[in-house]
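F-box domain-containing protein, pasting as requested.
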Amino acid sequence: MVSRLPPEILQEIFKYNLCTKSPIFENLKKSCLLVNRYWCYNAVSLIWEEPLNVCSTSESRKDSKDDIMEIYITNLPQESKSLLRKSGIDSQEISRHSRTTINYASFLQKIELQDLYDIVTRWVIRSKYYSLKLYEETKPKRLLLYRELCKFFISQNPKLKFSIRLDSIKWNEYIHFQQLSGIIPVNSCLEKLICYTLVKDEIYESISKIFTEIKDLEIMCNEEKDNIDNIGLASLIDKMRENTAWSLTINRIYRPIPNIIKSLEKKVHLLTSLNIYGDGPYPSKVFSKCKLLKKLIIEVDEFEDDKLVLTPFIRHSFKQLMEFDYYSGSTVNVLLIAMIIMNTRKTLKYLRISWYKEIQVIDPKNHTLLISTIITHCPNLTELVISLNQLTINQIPDVMRKCNKLRRIFLNWCEEEEPIEIKNWVWNLGETIPSLLQLLYFDNNNMGLNIDSLELFLNRCQKKSIKYLELKIDDWLSAEDLEVNSRRVLNLIELYESNGILHPNTKSNWALNRKRNGFHAM
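Structure tokens follow.
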């Protein structure tokens, strides 16, 4: 029956199981290839969508990329292989006249151009360690192979998507981007650019001659001692196509970047996603023009007052904002966070607000206002991460009652003392739990939860007909509970799992954490 499924449905099933970083599924990928020809073709098309875009830098991953490169080179047109032989590159893959049975390049959907150049460099030099002299001597060969591969990939898929990550450029070399002129069409779109303020202007100039649209720009601010004006990056931003939605991430502004900020100011009104990480002299006023945001993430470390970061976002309404994350490692201004939520017009689906226990809440009297604002302004929430204290913990049942579309909840306790009347709170939690809830995590540090409260909660879930709820048992119970009452905990999990109340992941996660913490297996 599965073999008769349309390819669109079969590939969705494969995506769910195969497109994961978990090593558990590595053998599953190979197995899908061996079932029959129909399964093989549909699995191959997914596995080879972006085989070179592997985040890991381990030697085993690098070797895998080299193997993939050899397959691509084997399938190059004979005209390209002839050019490579004349340049002095000779290998079994280039000498081979036959091709692989499957044209793997035809499945390629995304490619990271800097990573491709690094793989080409390693393949040509054939050594893990090499000198600058050898690097320079092999440059003509590397550039030729890089160019021919890019031509080949684009010929197989004219809609190929490109990204560039500039952190791995060696010796500030940028000439390989010039090789793409005439291969990648002018005014093309760059899916993602991860760039650094330390990178030379010439590199950005080469990129701007090809790409005039950047969907996702991430700026990593280096801690330079020299005064760098960043004219190249500013110019690249200036040349970005008008009236095109885009995303921006800024990481740690160690020093003022006026030229970049001036260029950003002309474009931020089109931002649909903004991520701010770290600390530094952030250009707050610039972001006051971001009215089209669908996603806003703010993660700050050492601000004396987070008012500087939050104020730009309280002065206008967000009619499309669906995701708001705020994490502070310094101070928390709860009132301003509540005001941003009020301005969302009830569009939020994902809300994550958290901070460390030792973090100073500037206006603790407004902490209950934050939860009340969530209750009244977030009826469409599907995921909530929130820090709680003595005043706000009793508001959580009301949150669950009003935000009845919630699927994932993470509760963090941010005080040293245990909450009072925890038993009544657990009862109310079980009474108001949303029927769609799939995952509930607790940070149990000093929350006073125990196995009796766990059993009470599960009993209420059963009466509410909750199905397949994934619980983080380790965060619910203390270390003493986990050791002394481990058999009772296991029996509880198995009972409610057999009734369909708990998701099977609850038991497997619990067993894994026990093993990690040195407890004996049950």
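Note for the archive: The chain has a mean pLDDT of 83.
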